[in-house]
Amino acid sequence: MTWLITGGAGYIGAHVARAMTAAGERVVVLDDLSSGDPERLPAEIPLVRGSLLDRRLVDRTLAAHEVTGVVHLAGKKQVGESVEQPLAYYRENLYGLTVLLEAVVAAGVRRFLFSSSAAVYGVPDVELITEVTPAVPINPYGETKLAGEWLVRATGQAHAMATGCLRYFNVAGAARPELSDTGVFNIIPMFFDRIGRGEAPRIFGADYPTPDGTCVRDYIHVADLAEAHLAAARRLTAQEGAGDLTVNIGRGEGVSVRELADLVAEVTGHRVPPVVEARRPGDAAKAVASVGLIAEELGWTASRGVREMVESAWEGWQLHHPAASVG
């Protein structure tokens, strides 16, 4: 097998590419480097720079590297931005996926693994989110992920392709400092950013129906996520013909925003109490994954805890932001 990893120079993609390569899989990366960094990839992984919207480039890449499976991670992923720029999100996430699938079908590729998101569920009022919890996304980002799942499954059925859709919960941490998340869009980097500027971390809403009033989320270490991709890819490799596997990827354990803020303070030494601001529209009180299906289907469970996520993320943040201050 040779796997094409789209978006493989990104934060998650580079972890997936390295995990698969370390396990003996042949990998090639296609990335437009809009948010990716070629320095994240070891020299032995070929990198093709370009957009999924360039059908000729995709065709050439699939043929030149004799690709037999695809792990599709490329796409735009910021919820707030998707509300402001829905056309860009549908173009990049859905039209880009359409172009890729057309090329994959034409090349005779029969394995396709899709990076989806817990955003497909919207804000369900349940203790644990299972794979059969109704998917009712509340923003364009979640809509493109759900529609992407539909498109992947339909294409798989029509063209005898084994497919998988992995619904990530909240990804954090780093396997190595240089692979850490350099964006300031997820909660842990947002806390670090405030710390680095000598400001108190922010909590959005402290009046939710949860034990401490703050939102509860399920966090997954990016290295565990990469290992889940490897397990899913090998499942698709062993599969003959059409068939879809759709699973949650999380730890099945909730951590409140306030608990996370306390842990960040302990790890970083920055102990200024967080400030509480107004709720953000669309935030669910609780979003925790049911992880029984992925354990049953792939024999995979997360092995890294939240402390390891925060410690590894902080080490990476300090590498990329050496002037970050602690108080």
How many distinct helices?
A: 10
Please state the overall shape, judged from the principal axes of the Cα atoms: globular
Within CATH, the superfamily of the largest domain carries the name NAD(P)-binding Rossmann-like Domain
- Annotated CATH architecture of the largest domain: 3-Layer(aba) Sandwich
Mean pLDDT: 96
**CA gyration radius, whole angstroms:** 19 Å
Counting DSSP E segments of at least 2 residues, the number of strands comes to: 14
What is the chain-wise order of helices and strands?
Answer: EHEEHEHHEHEEHEEEHEEHEEHH
Strand content: 15-25%
Give the C-level CATH assignment of the largest domain.
Alpha Beta
Contiguous runs where pLDDT drops below 50 for at least 5 residues: none
Classify the fold: give the CATH topology of the largest domain. Answer: Rossmann fold
**Major sheet summary line:** 7 strands, parallel
User: Could you give the distance between the termini?
Assistant: 50 Å
> By helix and strand content, what is the structural category?
alpha/beta
Task: Provide the helix percentage.
Answer: 25-40%
Strand order within the widest beta sheet:
3-2-1-4-5-6-11
What is the number of domains? 2
